[in-house]
Amino acid sequence: MIRIKSDDEIKKMELAGRLTAKVLEAVEDIIKPGITTADIDAFCEHYIVNTLNAYPGSKGQYGYPYTVNTSVNHVVCHGWPSDQQVLREGDIVNVDVTVLKHGYYGDSSKTYFVGPVPDHVKRLVDVTQECLYKAIRIVKPGVTLGDIGHVIQTHAESHHYSVVREYCGHGIGKKMHEDPQVLHYGKPGRGVRLKPGMTFTIEPMINQGRKEVRLHRDGWTVTTRDRRPSAQFEHTILVTETGFQVLTLREEERGCL
Fold first, then answer.
1. For residue 76, what are the contacts with CB-CB under 8 A and spacing of at least 6?
2. Domains in the chain, start-ordered, CATH in brackets?
3. Which of 9, 158, 239, 256 is deepest in the core (most CB within 10 A)?
């Protein structure tokens, strides 16, 4: 059942979203060759708890022991931070963070470059972000979730990339995962029609190669089957009376959406 948020709930989600954006802005300064993904996790947890006076929303959810997911290169999503995983020049890493404040969640992710990266990898990351932005720009009452998925799929496939099917965006609010599911592929006019007060994430995972993925034995880590790179970006979105509000917008993105 899709929950329409009240004005009071929206204010709390706006705060949680702003704090989530701040984490992704702050962590960028430490992402460089030589650090470990465990360093990223430790930084984010300290920043959320001690600077933002909030709580790492992912920690403890479904038994997950860390604050963030760190997905490197061919890891599609849900990568576990590790003190054995050292980032090297040319890597890409997606940092997925959830912040809980006053009982409401913000959820966002960004794929970062670790030093200079090959042109073909940069192109994948850029197109993935474009997929997210194109989908966000069409959000307004009356648009369907199929319209959102179609925009993402069309743009990715026009660049000869593929869209991951098994993982998707989701409703969000007092729970990290609520209805509806937000697929990143689809047909125009299909699915739930958007209404003001709906809040959900859009978080396309775009593969350079084939769309098929593999879930590892740890029950979390997902990689591309062909081991080619994958990129992801995510925002938490509010449907307004006339369009959309990006609740997790970072300062660098102002003017882009």
1. 164, 167, 205, 207, 213, 222, 223, 224, 230, 232
2. 7-253 (3.90.230.10)
3. 239
